[in-house]
Design a protein that fits this description.
Layout: H1 2-14, H2 21-68, H3 75-99, H4 123-142, E1 145-146, H5 151-163, H6 165-170, H7 196-211, E2 214-216, H8 224-228, H9 236-264, E3 275-282, E4 345-357, H10 361-368, E5 372-376, E6 387-391, E7 394-403, E8 421-433, H11 434-437, H12 443-449
Parallel strand pairs: 1-2, 2-3
Antiparallel strand pairs: 3-4, 4-8, 5-6, 7-8
């Protein structure tokens, strides 16, 4: 009943607006305004907070970060210095590459051409050859390198034994050894190891091993015999070109000697040294040269290729040749490097063989391909203060390892100690930076590299 009354009272109160429409409109507008004010106020507070957070505080933080990372006033100087450092690195690399090929010459009177004002003389080529051989001899002396006893030395030892009354009475058959071929005196089946003759031979060979640090016969080194019998008989430009290629070969030979010296340093003799014997180095693998009275005829192993010549044609000297195409190399090159007319590198190949302690093979190969120091006094004349540069120009393309047959004729007078030894046969690539020696390169050689002149084929 009371609820009905309340509704009735409410309707009576609202009836006032029936007769006063303007008041009703005002009330309605006030009510709507009140309803709109609340969400608007709430929204404004939210927008204010968002603006405060994103626009003001966020911008402040960004400004603060920027003030901490702002580019210094002289930052451009640091950028310039960094760019200059990068440029210097690149220039240093190029400079060091050139320096690898800036090496001392055997003669400064030949390259790029003999001085026409000095008066031409064939003597300069003979001097070159003498220095070539002298350099090899000096390297052998520095390394305390000698060959095994010669047949004559062995024979003298046996002569001394046979002349002894005691040995003549006890070993009556000694008088007949002179008729035996020297190849059969020891380990060849004609003379037992335990015989008195065999003991004398063994003692002679052992004495040599104890007094030397490396076995080398210089005639097994390319160019040594050639310059020993050199006679000038060609045009001057051909003689200059001949000297040029032998100069390249000489640098290779010296690198091999330097590597052996580093390996054998600290050892007393060949019996304990890791590198026992330097058997050969050749740039053609096609020339058969006899040994000079050492351990018998030098066959050079299975690597050697017989160089073909027409009747009456002399064989070419065993000297390097630039690898202009793949067939010029001594083996298939895994590097693919060639001497190209537009290239920066010149490439040659060489073959070298050694007797090495089996446990030191890998270390020796690593050392052969490592950096080495050299002196340089300027091109084309050696009139600058000596500078020490570094070069690293050897890459091994092919290697073969085989047993050293100690009963073989090539080893019969050699004693290698108690180590297990192997024959290490390598074909290597040697590279030159063309800019390093271009100023002294003969014109005939430049024509060869440009394909305008046919160099000697292998």
């Amino acid at each position: 009943m009371s609820e009905k009354m309340n509704i009735k009272d409410l309707l009576q109160k609202l009836a006032v607006f029936k007769n006063n429409v303007s008041l009703l409109v005002a009330v309605i507008l006030a009510a709507v305004g009140g309803l709109l004010f609340v969400p608007t106020y709430l929204m404004s507070r939210s927008v204010e907070a968002q603006v405060q957070q994103e626009s003001i505080n966020g911008a402040a933080k960004q400004i603060e970060i920027l003030t901490q990372t702002v580019v210094p006033e002289k930052q451009y100087e640091k950028v310039v210095a960094l760019q200059e450092a990068h440029a210097k690195d690149a220039n240093d690399v190029e400079l060091k590459a050139r320096q690898t090929t800036q090496r001392e010459l055997l003669s400064y009177d030949i390259f790029p051409a003999p001085d026409p004002n000095a008066g031409f003389s064939a003597l300069i080529f003979q001097v070159f050859g003498q220095r070539y051989r002298k350099g090899i001899d000096e390297s052998m002396t520095r390394l305390n390198a000698h060959d095994c006893p010669t047949n004559e030395e062995i024979k003298r030892g046996l002569d001394d034994l046979s002349s002894s009354p005691r040995s003549r009475g006890r070993y009556g058959m000694m008088d007949g050894y002179e008729s035996m071929p020297m190849g059969g005196l020891y380990n060849g089946g004609m003379m037992p190891m335990g015989s008195m003759q065999g003991m004398v031979i063994d003692e002679t060979c052992l004495d040599r091993a104890k007094s030397t640090l490396l076995y080398v016969n210089p005639t097994d080194i390319a160019g040594y015999d050639y310059w020993g019998t050199y006679t000038y008989g060609v045009k001057p430009e051909e003689a200059v070109k001949d000297c040029w290629y032998h100069q390249l070969g000489y640098w290779v030979i010296q690198d091999i000697f330097d590597t052996i010296g580093a390996m054998n340093s600290g050892h007393d003799n060949v019996l304990t040294a890791p590198i026992k014997r330097f058997m050969r180095v050749t740039f053609t693998m096609g020339i058969n040269r006899p040994r000079a009275g050492g351990g018998g005829a030098f066959t050079g192993g299975s690597r050697r290729r017989r160089q073909t010549t027409t009747p009456g044609q002399a064989q070419e000297a065993d000297k390097p040749a630039y690898v202009l195409k793949a067939t010029d190399g001594l083996t298939e090159s895994c590097t693919g490097r060639l001497s190209k007319p537009e290239g920066d590198l010149d490439v040659i190949h060489f073959n070298a063989a050694f007797v090495v302690s089996a446990k030191d093979v890998l270390l020796f190969m690593e050392k052969l391909c490592s950096g080495k120091d050299h002196q340089f006094r300027g091109y084309p004349d050696a009139n600058e203060a000596p500078q020490t540069f570094e070069h690293n120009q050897i890459s091994i393309l092919e290697s073969k390892i085989g047993s050293a047959g100690l009963t073989d004729i090539t080893h019969r007078y050699y004693r290698y100690g108690s180590d297990n030894v192997v024959e290490l046969d390598l074909i290597c690539e040697y590279i030159f930076n063309r800019k390093g020696y271009q100023v002294i390169m003969p014109e005939s050689v430049k024509k060869t590299l440009a394909g305008q002149d046919q160099q000697t084929t292998r």
